[in-house]
């Protein structure tokens, strides 16, 4: 590889590629310990795990223990064919997860009683904020008030307060069960939207139908944050007038994980579907006329609408959405109803028992959660429960909360009753006062819930929810879907900007350990010391490698880290009295999330031009800085740039912004090109997000989960994310954050942090540096080998690229008519996932091999790209017609070549075995090319009838 590039050592190559002015000399002392072996890292993780106490959480507040069916944990959560896949932007090789996601959408629409659901939100609290923004766009009211149920989850209320100001919304809390608030004259207060929690945070089940009607009369849209398990028994939000339903699907078999990752959900009534944020799967058609799934409206948010975007969601929670959907597929409607009934019965049995001893409840109408009145003794009861291994919720000195879930046993109920002072044995039916015992099995579920609130309609009637009832059938269904998808377990996914590196098995191991997975996010500090120690180490290590002072791991994706970082900049300017600093400069080449996040942080986006070499146009930057001098809040840049180039002028750029009083945000998505060689903090960055699911080995999960830590210099630290339930106020380095929450859980998607911890622990600083060097070497090798076939669009001063390279396919199109789409689809026939298409430049492919691909796989890719170029040349030479050749016909299914009337001018062998090695190693796409133009409006976004596939 070095010979092809003309360098003697990898070090020499990278020294040349990375501008000398920004390079750091490797540190002599480091907080990052020298690399551990796999066995050592696992041993250390076991010690950390043992410092978490495995208690039985009965805290509730949107998080419940659940049984993950083993067939799902083994065949989805722990199966690389699911967890190493990328977001389904290439639908032909993503039919398996797209089907799983359409199951998810169908599950959510059925249970919520609304028309259309998307394929996952980041968590419940952020989904409520997104719903608030949908309501504002959908409402005709000119009010800026969003009415919030006083009985909404406390973390949701905190997040709403933290986010509302930046987008000009006023949050007004009201006791909605007492009716819609009115002014002195009895007129309903104006609002564009209203949030009801159903059932409430206190567990109360009440009927929002009247308050929803008044809200509609006042021009407000109604958002219901609803518990999906409760909805199997209770009337659906769509039936009481909700326009939007949101929530979490955590309790559908997704482990608690100290807060995540979990899939949130959103569903809307018809008329609002085009306002849905995030991803939406629909049924389209392939070139052979067969139904096939694809994302609809897929690029609108990130790549087209930019500053007009209404949501910044990019990485979502696909793997967890798949798990939740499969939980519903496996249990089916009867199974879910039985689980919910069992939960309600257990809660009822406990309530009956407590009341029979004279205790009273805040509400007698509940599903799974009780608020028990215990004047003066809440603390003592909670301590007694802890003695027996149970975590209850301290509400105030006079109130204890208890939430029951599918894992709760009679023994658990007896122990909890004992904590409240009741004789334990009796509860189990062994006592002498048998007449006062309420046998668990005889309790009447939902005894005090009015009949009008009970659900009477059918749901999940589609065959997919009624077929896979045995473990054998379920295992085969999951294998069948995985077989249709191309993930890292099959070959390279050279997606530029996405860093699809190895997710090593050792790194993944701890995710499923119960000490990490069955932990409630609001558990007391003493129960989660292992987690907190790991988090503090990771914060320290990430601060060191990025050159920042403080790190928050709370954001659930890169986009959320961006938002947190920009909110910190906003908070900083405001604290300095600079209320007018609201302009955010963003280069035209930026990722779409940048502009969207700026808008959500209340900033005005001003685009800075790029020159022909792909670098920021310094003259334009200076002009824009001068023009907006007093209003300048921030510059957002990506380094190395999204063009895959180390811009030499970066220090001048950041200096110019600082001189004008602005802050510098460095998008850290390309950190895999820099780690160990340069640090954002040293480049003049004030704040960055990292993508642990890119640079730090967390798998992409088919489009999530992710972790997007935000890292900042000390002056911004006070404005980084905080959380009302954080177990500790301070972070590594002693910093205390006070920016308000950016996620529902204090440490975000904690259960996948062991992956990045293990990655860093096993790499050490030297290993991280080596990985960068290998990634840069591989990208440059591909660039040099393909240069004669496809022009490499941008390069630095020495003709070198960073960790990715952009191949320009526009000349090919001019010469041969073959498009970037044709090449991407033909790569499927060769057994590859296409590189990133048309980002950041239309008509190009951006290739990022990462350090994880060996030379054999890289050569296979180069060979395929060269062969494809030759095929295109053959088209140009007239050997094959422009409208009938292996490129425009790609991808080829098995069915397409067994067709008896094969009438193409190229052979069947050319179609499916263009290189010999494929004969023994073929990935067969399940569908032919999917029509992207087939109108989004026509897409059906729920499971299609089985006959469609006949
Ligand atoms: C991936 C990416 C993002 C967004 O990160 P998510 O984790 O997907 O939200 C932002 N900027 C760039 C340059 C990226 O590549």
From TrEMBL:
Gene3D superfamilies, A to Z: Aspartate Aminotransferase, domain 1 (3.90.1150.10), Type I PLP-dependent aspartate aminotransferase-like (Major domain) (3.40.640.10)
Glycine cleavage system P-protein N-terminal domain mapped to chain residues: 1-420, 448-725
InterPro entries the record matches: GcvP, GDC-P_C, GDC-P_N, GDC_P, PyrdxlP-dep_Trfase, PyrdxlP-dep_Trfase_major, PyrdxlP-dep_Trfase_small
Keyword set, alphabetical order: Oxidoreductase, Pyridoxal phosphate
Pfam families associated with the record: GcvP2_C, GDC-P
Recorded coiled-coil stretches: none
Catalytic activity entry: N(6)-[(R)-lipoyl]-L-lysyl-[glycine-cleavage complex H protein] + glycine + H(+) = N(6)-[(R)-S(8)-aminomethyldihydrolipoyl]-L-lysyl-[glycine-cleavage complex H protein] + CO2
EC number, as in UniProt: 1.4.4.2
Cofactor requirements of the protein: pyridoxal 5'-phosphate
Top-level taxon of the source organism: Bacteria
Start and end residues of each Glycine dehydrogenase C-terminal domain: 771-892
Enzyme class: oxidoreductase
SUPFAM superfamilies reported for this sequence: PLP-dependent transferases (SSF53383)
A molecular function (GO) term: glycine dehydrogenase (decarboxylating) activity
Modified residues (N6-(pyridoxal phosphate)lysine): 694
Recorded family membership: Belongs to the GcvP family.
Function noted in UniProt: The glycine cleavage system catalyzes the degradation of glycine. The P protein binds the alpha-amino group of glycine through its pyridoxal phosphate cofactor; CO(2) is released and the remaining methylamine moiety is then transferred to the lipoamide cofactor of the H protein.
SUBUNIT field: The glycine cleavage system is composed of four proteins: P, T, L and H.
Official protein name in the record: Glycine dehydrogenase (decarboxylating)
UniProt source species: Microbacterium koreense
Gene field: gcvP
């Amino acid at each position: 590889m070095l010979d092809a590039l003309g360098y003697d050592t990898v070090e020499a190559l990278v020294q040349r590629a990375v501008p000398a002015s920004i390079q750091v000399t490797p540190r002599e002392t480091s907080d990052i310990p020298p690399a551990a072996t796999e066995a050592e890292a696992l041993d250390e993780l076991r010690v950390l795990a043992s410092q978490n106490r495995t208690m039985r959480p009965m805290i509730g507040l949107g998080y419940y223990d659940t049984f993950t069916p083993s067939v799902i944990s083994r065949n989805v959560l722990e199966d690389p064919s699911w967890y190493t896949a990328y977001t389904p932007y290439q639908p032909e090789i993503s039919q398996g997860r797209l089907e799983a996601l359409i199951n998810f959408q169908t599950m959510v629409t059925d249970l919520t009683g609304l028309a259309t659901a998307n394929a996952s939100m980041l968590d419940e609290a952020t989904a409520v904020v997104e719903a608030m923004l949908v309501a504002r766009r959908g409402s005709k009211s000119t009010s800026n008030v969003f009415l919030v149920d006083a009985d909404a989850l406390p973390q949701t209320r905190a997040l709403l307060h933290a986010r509302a100001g930046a987008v000009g919304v006023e949050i007004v809390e009201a006791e909605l069960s007492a009716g819609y608030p009115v002014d002195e004259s009895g007129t309903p207060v104006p609002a564009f939207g209203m949030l009801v929690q159903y059932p409430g945070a206190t567990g109360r089940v009440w009927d929002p139908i009247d308050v929803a009607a008044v809200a509609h009369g006042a021009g407000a849209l109604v958002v219901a944050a609803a518990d999906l398990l409760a909805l199997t028994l209770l009337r659906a939000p769509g039936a009481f007038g909700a326009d939007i339903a949101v929530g979490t699907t955590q309790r559908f078999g997704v482990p608690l994980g100290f807060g995540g990752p979990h899939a949130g959900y959103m569903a809307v009534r018809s008329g609002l579907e085009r306002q849905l944020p995030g991803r939406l799967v629909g049924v389209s058609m392939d070139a052979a006329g067969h139904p096939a799934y694809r994302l609809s409206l897929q690029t609108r948010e990130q790549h087209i609408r930019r500053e007009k975007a209404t949501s910044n969601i990019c990485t979502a929670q696909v793997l967890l959405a798949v798990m939740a959907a499969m939980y519903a597929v496996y249990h089916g409607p009867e199974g879910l109803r039985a689980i919910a009934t069992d939960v309600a019965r257990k809660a009822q049995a406990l309530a009956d028992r407590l009341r029979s001893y004279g205790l009273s409840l805040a509400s007698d109408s509940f599903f799974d959660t009780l608020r028990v009145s215990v004047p003066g003794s809440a603390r003592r009861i909670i301590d007694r429960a802890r003695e027996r291994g149970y975590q209850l919720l301290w509400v105030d000195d006079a109130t204890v909360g208890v939430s029951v879930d599918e894992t709760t046993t009679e023994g658990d109920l007896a122990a909890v009753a004992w904590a409240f002072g009741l004789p334990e044995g009796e509860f189990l039916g062994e006592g002498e006062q048998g007449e006062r015992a309420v046998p668990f099995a005889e309790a009447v579920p939902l005894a005090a819930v009015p009949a009008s609130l009970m659900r009477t309609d059918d749901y999940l009637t589609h065959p997919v929810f009624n077929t896979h009832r045995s473990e054998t059938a379920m295992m085969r269904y999951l294998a069948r879907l995985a077989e249709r998808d191309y993930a890292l377990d099959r070959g390279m996914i050279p997606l530029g900007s996405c860093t699809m590196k190895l997710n090593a098995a050792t790194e993944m191991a701890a995710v499923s350990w119960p000490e990490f997975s069955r932990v409630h996010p609001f558990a007391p500090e003493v129960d989660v010391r292992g987690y907190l120690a790991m988090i503090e180490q990771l914060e320290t290590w990430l601060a060191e490698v990025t050159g920042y002072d403080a790190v928050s791991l709370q954001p659930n994706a890169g986009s959320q880290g961006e938002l947190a970082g920009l909110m910190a900049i906003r908070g900083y300017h405001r604290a300095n009295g600079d209320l007018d600093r609201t302009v955010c400069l963003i280069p035209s080449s930026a990722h779409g999330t940048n502009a969207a996040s700026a808008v959500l942080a209340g900033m005005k986006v001003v685009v800075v031009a790029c020159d022909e070499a792909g670098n920021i146009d310094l003259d334009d930057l200076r002009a824009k800085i001068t023009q907006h001098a007093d209003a300048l809040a921030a510059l957002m840049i990506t380094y190395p740039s999204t063009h895959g180039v180390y811009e030499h002028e970066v220090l001048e750029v950041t200096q110019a912004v600082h001189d004008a009083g602005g802050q510098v945000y460095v998008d850290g998505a390309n950190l895999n090109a820099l780690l160990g060689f340069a640090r954002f903090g040293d480049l003049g960055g004030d704040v960055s997000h990292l993508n642990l699911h890119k640079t730090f080995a967390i798998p992409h999960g088919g489009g999530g989960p992710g972790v997007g830590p935000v890292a900042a210099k000390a002056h911004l630290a006070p404005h980084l994310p905080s959380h009302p339930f954080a177990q500790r106020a301070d972070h590594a380095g002693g910093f205390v954050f006070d920016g308000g929450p950016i996620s529902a859980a204090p440490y975000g998607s904690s259960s996948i942090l062991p992956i990045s911890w293990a990655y860093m622990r096993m790499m050490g600083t030297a290993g991280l540096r080596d990985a960068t060097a290998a990634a840069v070497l591989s990208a440059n090798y591909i660039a040099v080998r393909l240069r004669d076939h496809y022009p490499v669009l941008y390069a630095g001063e020495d003709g070198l690229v960073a960790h990715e390279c952009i191949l320009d396919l526009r000349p090919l199109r001019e010469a041969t008519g073959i498009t970037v789409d044709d090449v991407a689809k033909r790569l499927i026939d060769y057994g590859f996932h296409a590189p990133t298409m048309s980002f950041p430049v239309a008509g190009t492919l951006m290739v990022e091999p990462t350090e994880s691909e060996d030379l054999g796989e890289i050569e296979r890719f180069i060979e395929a790209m060269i062969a494809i170029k030759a095929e295109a040349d053959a088209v140009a030479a007239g050997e094959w017609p422009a409208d009938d050749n292996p490129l425009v016909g790609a991808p080829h299914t098995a069915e397409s070549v067994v067709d008896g009337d094969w009438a193409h001018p190229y052979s069947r062998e050319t179609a499916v075995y263009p290189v010999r090695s494929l004969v023994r190693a073929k990935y067969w796409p399940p569908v032919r090319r999917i029509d992207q133009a087939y109108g989004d409006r026509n897409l059906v976004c729920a499971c299609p009838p089985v006959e469609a596939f006949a």
